[in-house]
Amino acid sequence: MRTIPYGRQDIVDEDVAAVVEVLRSDWLTQGPKIEEFERAVASACGAAQAISVSSGTAALHLACLALDVGPGDLVWTTPNTFVASANCARYCGADVDFVDIDERTYNISAAALRAKLREAAQRGRLPKVVVAVAFSGQPADMAEIAELAGEYGFAVIEDASHALGAEYRGHKVGDGAYADLTVFSFHPVKLVTTAEGGMVVTNRNTLGERLRRLRTHGITRTAADLEASGEGGWYYEQLELGYNYRMTDLQAALGTSQMARLEGFLERRRYLAARYDRLLREFPLITPWQAPERLSAWHLYVVQLDPARTPLTRREVFDAMRARGILVNVHYIPVHLQPYYRRLGFRAGAYPVAEAYYEHALSLPLYFGLTDEDQERVISTLAEVLRLGA
Ligand SMILES: *Cc1c(COP(=O)(O)O)cnc(C)c1O
What we know:
single chain, 37% helix, globular
């Protein structure tokens, strides 16, 4: 029985050729392909600067560092995300707190954020940064979040790991209209892949320069930034503690080749999502609601089992689908329920909307190479598992 994964990359001959060309060239890392890929991503999302790094997680870490997040600071994010959206603050020694999600978009709730900020202001413990995740590819309420950022003086990192090519109120995600820094991931299940890889985009040039320095040990060779002068052509200075978070030219060449197909990737995912919406209409499921003025990149197609219309639990449906070769998944286990975060003091019940959503959520297969026939098999298997038409 052929299995259908929930997501996968799509690699064509042009991608392979692009990588092989780099292997035969002078530069395996930090050569011309890096700049080419950064330009491709910057221009696709309308950002002034794009800084490639070794993963989306590295991008989040450096984004926090560039905003001077450190011990004693507070970073807020959503519990309905991959752990990296919260871990980035912990890498910097900062404390993390969460804001519950909106019950329809599954993104951070702007109303809950507003209420929590009001309370935090009274206690004098406001966040320095809010990491807003565009869950499943649908941007969060970024205009409200940006307005609150102005009011309460925090910076906004948009974790757009799911949302390359998404739009919000006519703005491309990453164009800097609503976030100080936007982060993308190029893990194989994401929209575009470099195997491992990430990118930070920004319109704030000083942050961009800092990010370039931080990804390579905190080292600079730029004459204007050096503390000493006249030392000679070999000379560089380490100005702060940075990392080796560089992307290779092999990865960047793959990324540039993939970026040429971004529009096609998005179009196929949007087609498949609309088809799921239509074909699942009579199922005892809550299909993903799309807020106005947003165009999702459709990284994930998440349904919730509707307990009012089916006696089956998510666990039963998950196991039955997997047993039939449909590799459904669950996004996400609320981050605050992870043992690591529980040990920091977080408890079940703290974010009831995210927890209730998690109980019923199921991600159906969605990727560029999913054929119409594959999708029909997913749907007929789901009908069988849910005992529809029996
Ligand atoms: C994939 C992902 C990341 C991490 O990206 P990596 O490239 O795997 O390090 C961060 N946040 C979210 C929401 C993600 O989906």
